[in-house]
Amino acid sequence: MTTDGDVLLRLAGEIDDLGARLARVGTELRTVRSAAEPKHEEAPEQAPQKQAEEAQVPPQAQQPQAEQPQAQQAPQQPYPHPPYQQHPQYAHYQQQYQQAQYAQWQQQYRQQYQQPYRPYQPAPKVSLAEKLGKEGAGSRLLAWIGGAVTLLGIVLFLVLAIQRGWFGPLPRVIGGAVLGAALVGIGLRLHRTPAGRTGAFALAATGIGALYLDAIAATTMYEYLPAYAGLAIGLLIAVGGLLLAVRWKSSLLATAVVLGCVICAPIITQGFTPQLVAFLLVVQVASTPVQLRQSWPSVAVASGIPPLVASVFSTAFTGPGGSTANTAAALAVSGVGLSLALIVTAKRSGDAAALTLLALAPAASLLAALLLPKTPAVLVTASVALVLLAVWAAGQWLDGWTGDLAGAAGLVAALQTTMTLFDGSARSAVLIGEGVLLALVALWTKKHVALFGGLGFTVIGGMIALVFDVPPTLFFLIRNRPDADLAAAFLVALAILAVSITLPWVAHRLGLFKAAAENVVPWLFAGVCGLYGAGAMVLCGAMLAVPGRSGFLVGHVVITVSWTVAALVLLVRGISAVNLRVIGFVLVGAAVLKLVLFDLAALDGLARVAAFLIAGLVLLGAGTRYAKLVASR
Hints:
By secondary structure, the protein is an all-alpha fold. The chain has helices at about 5-35, 45-55, 90-115, 130-135, 135-165, 170-190, 195-220, 225-250, 250-260, 265-270, 275-285, 290-295, 295-320, 325-345, 350-360, 365-370, 375-395, 400-420, 425-445, 450-470, 485-510, 520-545, 550-575, 580-600, 605-630.
């Protein structure tokens, strides 16, 4: 893998090579210049030496260059090496020069790219007094407090005017509309100058809140407007206020508009009613364009949480039996919340506020269904479950956690549907059966949410079964139970056995569990649950076939013998499979413990003898067969 340092080192080597070539060219140019200059007269002391050298040269060598044959001329080098490279210490000097250049480059690189280590220093905490002492903080605080107090005063004036009978309904509505419009107009005028924008935000938020509350009062208190007209006018007011916040690029103004519309609304509607939920939903719908254009979590939370809270309180005040209006409002809250969350997460997959609303949206409908009769409650919860599970099934087209959260919420709705629709032994059997189905879905889709959902269904169904259907006293006390109860207990025990095998196998296939030889605890727990289910199934079947005490004794003998036979099969099959061999030895230990701790004390007569003889013979045969198989390998 090539790093930035390697690239820089390579570049430095090329620069050094280029410098050496330039030095060579400079030396050659100086040589050519010196050859072109006229020769000076030789010194007197050098003349005799030159004459002696010429005397030693043969006559043929003293001929001019032009007279020599052309074939005897040596080929000329295109780039002859300069004389200084022939020095014996040239290589040593060049190496020292390159090392010095590299050290200089390394020092420059460290100074330029490597920052010195600075220990982490937490940011200094700013006290409330320092925050308020900043320039402009006091004016902003006073402006927003003034706006909140003004809005509350408008609400109190409307309530007091109704109680005292002042002015009449129509002047109150017109006066509130004029006051709200005037506040918005003043805010628009102040926003033209930078110095007045703080007050402009507060005035605009107060005016929009006053207009929205006036629309609520005209619809719910005075009934001047029908419900659909009041909701439409409220939608226009909320959308206008939020679009103004987007134009001014102020998340604070958008949040203030939403809060101003929703906080004082319960006072106007005189409590938590379905009408209040509808008006709060209008604000949430109006915030959709803002949430799509701007990533303002405060706006999403301020518009999404109030309808949910209002629906919960409306359900609580409605009481047992519920009502059609409250149920419709709750379904609308869940539908709008889910739709808005899906729209936002489709554009921003990691939006935390949208994911939170997606997880909380079904709560309104599920809580409302708790107070409804059985049939409407099942219809409500089943509808919510189907929608959420459909979103989960379409999770391959969704990004992030959207599909998984929808699936988890859908499984909760399905759990409530099952708990409402079934009762008695059927409830535990269906819950455990759904656990098996979800485990198979997890194996098919590779989704861990389905596996954990199946585990949750299994735990709840198993706890119900242990209390009502197959309690531990089934193995110790002889009671005359109706055949219908025994048949239901048989089915529940069969479901426990099936889920005890399916869940750990699927978890192992998905990589959540290691093999039994490496991770004993979960496999051992699953094995104990499987033995419990198998024992209860055998005992219930024996008591169905042979009623009374005889069936009870026969059932225990069959349980002991079946455990030993299963251990033999697992040991034989486990010669080349460590997991099966470990399970087989665990089953042998369980059979021996049952013989010593239970059968010896609880069984009597022929049943005790049969249990010990048959189990002993099976274990003896298993040991002999297993020894032969091991020796033959």
